[in-house]
Design goal:
336 residues, twelve-stranded antiparallel sheet, alpha+beta, 19% helix, globular
Length: 336
């Protein structure tokens, strides 16, 4: 029997090329004035040349924290996000997915105009092989579902495509988009300084996937004591959004873990854009008010995400064959 579907995380920096190495350092971001300014413009202004060769010597001279902030800042300022995810409520479901089936969810969010839509694809295992079981799409606020039994698309019950519900679990559960340069600065200052710095960044390394070079960057968020609020981890991302002047209650965003849990996430960054292409994240245990693990097995969800940052938001269209194709992640689940 198939399991139920599991559905529902410094200021600007410069990348300066010096000989065979890049040195990343903080610079003023005054010239970045709108959230809609392209990432290419950011990198060109900062001195990062798209298409340049990234090698181990270059990465050895790279400041990990500055690289993380460059990636996060770019992600925060992109007005449109498309994120394709597999989300598992506990590690065992993730490990069992290849023999029990799984669900892939894709959300398209236009932060600038507060628009969000989603698509799902369900896979099950038949005789040891993953096969398509069902699909759903939200089109103009109405749900549509395809079933393997009928081979056709049909309407779903009213209320299946409510934006307030879609935004829960949308994106990668960590970073929203649509912020201006000033808002991104406030967000980063709060996140890494209000209660101390909850983020530790590991050494960047070179990674090849599908014939292309990426930068692998491990990041860990550790819950911190937040004065009278006990220990807080993932909730810091929501509070950082509030510090930037945005209400998480109305914004198309929600974080992907319990308030007092942390996360270990490995990013695979596209050096041509300084944006994430893929990430693998595991939640860490929830802490109590004394900073102790409340339950070692509580809410240790796993999430795999693939990213796209198109210039324009596009709804799903049942007349477009491309939008009807089954959704799947292209990065292998063993890449962690």
């Amino acid at each position: 029997m198939r399991k139920p579907r599991r559905r529902r995380a410094a200021v600007g920096v410069a990348l300066v090329l010096a000989g065979a190495a890049i040195t990343i350092s903080a610079i003023s971001a005054a010239w970045l004035s709108t959230a809609s300014r392209s990432t290419a413009a950011f990198d060109e202004k900062a001195g990062f040349k798209p298409g340049m060769e990234i090698n181990e010597a270059v990465l050895a001279a790279t400041d990990p924290d500055a690289l993380y902030e460059a990636m996060l800042r770019n992600q925060l300022m992109r007005p449109v996000h498309q994120v394709t995810t597999e989300h598992y409520s506990n590690p065992q479901w993730f490990e069992d997915a290849e023999r029990l089936g799984h669900t892939v969810r894709q959300t398209r969010v236009d932060y600038e105009h507060n628009r969000v839509t989603e698509a799902d694809t369900d896979y099950e295992v038949v005789d040891g092989v993953q096969v398509l079981h069902a699909q759903s799409r939200c089109v103009d606020g109405e749900g549509h579902r395809w079933s393997e039994y009928t081979g056709t698309w049909s309407g779903r019950p009213p209320g299946s495509c409510i934006p307030e519900l879609i935004k829960v679990g949308s994106g990668d559960g960590i970073a929203p988009g649509g912020l201006s340069a000033k808002q991104a600065d406030r967000y980063l200052r709060y996140l890494r300084g209000e209660f101390g710095d909850p983020i530790s960044v590991g050494k960047p390394t070179l990674f090849r996937h599908d014939g292309k070079s990426y930068v692998r960057l491990p990041v860990k968020v550790t819950p911190l004591r937040t004065r009278d609020r006990g220990y807080t981890g993932m909730m810091l991302f929501q509070w950082a959004l509030q510090a930037a002047g945005i209400s998480p209650l109305t914004y198309p965003y929600s974080n992907g873990g319990a308030a007092a849990s942390g996360v270990e996430v490995t990013y695979y960054i596209d050096p041509a854009t300084t944006l994430p292409a893929y990430s693998f994240q595991r939640m860490t245990p929830v802490l109590n008010s004394a900073g102790e693990v409340r339950d070692p097995g509580e809410r240790l969800s796993v999430r795999r995400s693939e990213y796209a940052f198109p210039e324009r938001w596009r709804p799903y269209d049942l007349a477009n064959p491309t939008d009807l194709e089954p959704i799947a992640l292209t990065w292998h689940r063993d890449i962690r």
